[in-house]
Amino acid sequence: MPELSRRRRMLVLAICCMSLLIVSLDNTVLNVALPSMQKELHTSVSGLQWTIDAYTLVLASLLMLSGSTADRIGRRKVFKIGLVVFTLGSGLCSVAPNLELLVVFRMVQAVGGSMLNPVAMSIITNTFTDPRERARAIGAWGGTIGISMSAGPLIGGLLVDSVGWRSIFWVNIPVGITALILTWRFVPESRAPKPRRPDPVGQVLVIGLLGALTYAIIEAPAAGFLSPLILTFASVAVLSLIGLLFYEPRRYEPLIDLRFFRSAPFSGATVIAVCASGALGGFLFLNTLYLQDVRGLTAMHAGLYMLPMAAMTFVCAPLSGRLVGNWGPRIPLLIAGIGMAASGTLFAAFHAETHNVLLFTGYVLFGIGFGFVNAPITNTAVSGMPRSQAGVAASVASTSRQIGQTLGVAVIGAVLASGVGSSSYAAKFATASHPAFWIITAAGVIVLVVGLLTSGHWARGTALRNAERLDSPNNQQAERVRHSAA
């Protein structure tokens, strides 16, 4: 792709951020609308989990396929298709007559969403070739999440209280259409020099692993953890994982190139992405239900209560990008881990939900932690890889986020459902939520420890050596031959 002027690069970044905005805004708006959806559609906690996880599950399953397809046939082309499908899916969600069809239409949304974020990140990576400029661009990208977190609860609350929960999906339509027109006009086409072959077996195994694992976690409280149904789905997940570990290293161009994980920073970024996004998904799920079902707040007031968290994410995300560009990922990752762990501890050990000062302090701390975590994750995932692998590497990072959010909502929701049982939220919520907040605390501690271990001199050395192996065709071929002979 030819070098673009600075003005054109900034325009491409803005267009890519628009795609992230509609995807992340959709999630934050949806969380505020959950109690209203529960009442109108007469669904349980597990039903609410599926409205979120049906989307994130499909998204996680298809992200790597979309990234590699975009590298092969053209990133702008796949990006435009994603905008069309996501916008269409949003329109369908707004007219869903029941929970079952809403879940189906959310999956349609996810098919389009899988073509947006990783492909947009790949476009950014190939547009901003200077490492420092790229880190700052990724910081602005992360700041878009802060915008969605700050605007989402307010927009969602206003729409839910004035028009109804169906209107939350209308927001995506004008933004999606505008992004499509601007993409067609200003984003240049790009693709990898050497297209990757499709990997249908790997794709089926990924879907089997994520789908079976998520179903087992969400439905276990109702069906029983040792019921034949849950044990069957758990077995499918384990067998799919074994299949991936056995099959993918023996394929010349796998869907998941396990050699990426020889890079300590890349492996660390993957673990951190799962933990941070899992903590976010669980944190939003718990607090949305608490503020509206226990405290009795309206959707609008619940959105205002969570504004401190969103505001700190908005402020800290671009600052994190600058820190990564100037000093590397270690400082932002340490701040992120401390912030999320401290927030979880306030709720788990000091009952922050019962005192407004502690409640808002917890929200501020979590917003700081999550605001600092995104830029180092994305930058680390793509900076140590050859540019020809940018789409796949970005897809792995995005997939890790979606897996984390899927598991976060599934696990936290299952813990909450087990604790509440058939009682009302008001009677059992505080007690039932404390184990869930300890899980969020543990996720923050993992971010802190893994960030410390994978951001030093030794870790950078593993990334450089791995990049050389990945970028050498002879080394790639030799490793495939060795795996085939093994």
- Counted beta strands: 0
CATH superfamily of the largest domain: MFS general substrate transporter like domains
Structural class of the helix and strand makeup? mainly alpha
What number of domains?
A: 2
- End-to-end separation in angstroms reads 39 Å
CATH architecture designation of the largest domain:
Up-down Bundle
What order do the SSEs take from the amino end to the carboxyl end, as H and E? Answer: HHHHHHHHHHHHHHHHHH
Specify the overall morphology.
Answer: globular
**Could you tell me the strand content as a percent range?**
under 5%
Q: Determine the fraction of residues in helical runs and give it as a percent range.
A: over 70%
Gyration radius, in Å: 21 Å
Instruction: Provide mean pLDDT, rounded.
Output: 84
Predict the CATH topology of the largest domain.
Growth Hormone, Chain: A
| Tally of individual helices | 18
Q: Could you name the CATH class of the largest domain?
A: Mainly Alpha
